[in-house]
Amino acid sequence: MPRKKIIAGNWKMNKTAKEAKKLIKELIPLVEKSKADVVICTPFTALYDAVRLTKGTNIAVGAQNIHFEEKGAYTGEVSADMLVDIGVKYVIIGHSERRQYFGDTDETVNLKLKTALSKGLIPIVCCGESLQQRELGVTNELIRTQIKAAFAGVEKEQAKNVIIAYEPIWAIGTGKTATSEQANDACRVIRCVIEEMYNKSTADSIRIQYGGSMNASNAAELLSKPDIDGGLIGGASLKADEFSKIVNYRE
Predict the structure, then answer these.
(1) Residue 137: CA atoms inside 13 Å, Cβ hemisphere, count?
(2) How far apart, in whole angstroms, are the C-alpha atoms of residue 89 and residue 59?
(3) pLDDT category, 178, cuts 50, 70, 90?
(4) Is the dihedral of CA 69, 73, 75, 81 positive or negative?
(5) Closest alpha carbon to 50 in 58, 40, 64
(6) Which residue of 117, 127, 137, 143 is 20 to 30 Å from 162, comparing CA positions?
(7) For residue 181, is pLDDT > 90?
(8) In the chain, what are the domains?
(9) Is 8 helix (H, G, I), strand (E, B) or coil?
(10) CB-based burial label for 69 (10 Å; 0-12, 13-18, 19+)
(11) Chain-centre distance of CA 115, in angstroms?
(12) Which positions are catalytic?
């Protein structure tokens, strides 16, 4: 069975609640016939309205981060239970910006992943290399390390529910995009690591996105590659017309 594509928009720190509602209302009719799974990951302040507005549509809602503890003295953090309570389905874990600016590590990514799975959320786990690391030729080794660390202690049946996003850091928000061959090669490495950790069935079923300046003009080529099962879209997800073109790509 072919893997169903999944296109997720990561809005990052953009859109007030009012602006988010306007964008969602514009987006709903534009993506209603999509053959892919459609996800929007809004800021925390827009999640409640996003869930309410997308109810009964083909758009699911995701958060951009969670804390791995259920509750406690963690000022400024949001728990998995809080997200589930308002109807959130997905959560991004370990985005490079979280790692770079907010101290996420391979260890905390693993803890967050296991927490998300235990609460029934669908995690989108990010991995990827910097430009320096790619130029040093250590992309594959880095990806292997990140994936092994993220999935440590995750059971096979749980692993099948995880989405992995390969996001070369040098291509995020820069306008630079990995070639379709580079992106597919990295996604193939990820799939091979999953097969080594679990089995071929798990590797064949898990969906791997590409994230890194995917847009309406390059989406079809990237998504045509055998190991790329979707996109984690940044800037292009903030415009309904642009995002819908990616969601409605033609093979």
Answers:
(1) 0
(2) 10
(3) confident
(4) positive
(5) 40
(6) 137
(7) yes
(8) 6-247 (3.20.20.70)
(9) strand
(10) middle
(11) 16
(12) 95, 167
